[in-house]
Amino acid sequence: MSVLVVEEDFETLAWEYFVRAKKEGVAHAEVFLDPQAHAERGVPYSTVFSGYQKACERAKSQLGITAELIVCFLRHLPVESAEFTYDLALSDLKSGAIAGIGLSSTEIGKPPHRYSSIYAAAEKENIRRTAHAGEEADVTYMRGALEHLHVQRVDHGIKLAEDPALMAEFARRKIMVTMCPVSNVLLHCVNAMKDLPVRTYLEHGVPFSINSDDPAYFGGYVLDNYCKVQETFHLTKSEWKKIAVQSIDGSWCLESRKQEIRAMVEEVAAAYE
Q1: Which of 114, 112, 165 is nearest to 135 (CA)?
Q2: Cβ neighbours of residue 217 under 8 Å, at least 6 residues apart?
Q3: How far apart are CA 231 and CA 212, in angstroms?
Q4: Separation CA 39–CA 37 (nearest Å)
Q5: Which residues are catalytic?
Q6: What is the pLDDT of residue 2?
Q7: Looking at residue 40, what is its pLDDT?
């Protein structure tokens, strides 16, 4: 990470991801950025954001990929650092240049309610909200994210089966979970791919998407994750279509873009009927 210093470094980093994503069939990406991790090295928020923003603009114009940015707060740092970062990003959040806020890093011992003041402020500004919850930690973190942070999505949450009532609530309210199978296994959140709740969520109507998580670090880009899921669960074409459509529905892109991507899914589905 020490090589990421100036705006061009962050643009190059994001651009290389988008090039790889294009080859794997990605139409829309929602990308986390962690300004706190770079602030510790003396790199200002504006440098990180501007570099990523330029890469997103290039991805749209040169690759046809739309992208949204989500500013993430790091749990292993003090809450005050997250509050400071939120203030730095607020104008970009309010303008829509950044699509929403998230919460990442090590869960255990850092329950969601610690960040309730930031999320309450964001909710008052109609800023979208997500959080990593229920990956390393138990299902109470998913409930905490819903009840204390009023999230509209939950990232990496694989523990809903521990609380059937909460699982039913996620299904009823259509709270999407972004599942990252490769990193779930490598982080020992489950013993094996077969232990992920792919079937459980499908059967109980919990909307979820299949995603990559720090792909260069974990060695699993989005197509790797799709393939691992298929190799393990042998999903049908209709099940994959359902996952694709609910991924679109749960995304934070414009409704017009959602309609375009739904049409792409319908075209592919029809070709393989």
Answers
A1: 112
A2: none
A3: 16
A4: 6
A5: 135
A6: 84
A7: 86
Give per-residue pLDDT as tens, 54-70: 999 999 999 999 999 99
Sign (positive or negative) of CA dihedral 252, 256, 258, 260 = negative
The encoded tokens of residue 198 equal 């792919």
pLDDT at 216: 82
Q: What's the chain look like in SS3?
A: CCCCCCHHHHHHHHHHHHHHHHHCCCCEEEEEECHHHHHCCCCCHHHHHHHHHHHHHHHHHHHCCEEEEEEEEECCCCHHHHHHHHHHHHHHHHHCCCCEEEEECCCCCCCHHHHHHHHHHHHHCCCEECCECCCCCCCHHHHHHHHHCCCCEEECCCCHHHCHHHHHHHHHHCCEEEECHHHHHHCCCCCCHHHCCHHHHHHHCCCEEECCCCHHHHCCCHHHHHHHHHHHHCCCHHHHHHHHHHHHHCCCCCHHHHHHHHHHHHHHHHHCC
Structure token digits, residue 183: 């990193």
Q: pTM of the full predicted structure?
A: 0.95
The CA distance from 206 to 168, in Å, is 8
Q: Hunting for tokens 């003041």 — which residue is that?
A: 117
Dihedral over Cα of 149, 152, 154, 160: its sign: positive
Q: Average pLDDT of each block of 10 consecutive residues along the chain (273 residues)?
A: 92 97 96 94 96 98 98 96 97 98 94 98 98 96 98 97 98 97 93 97 98 86 96 97 97 97 96 87
Rounded distance between C-alpha atoms, residue 196 and residue 24, angstroms: 23
233 burial level (CB within 10 Å; 0-12, 13-18, 19+): middle
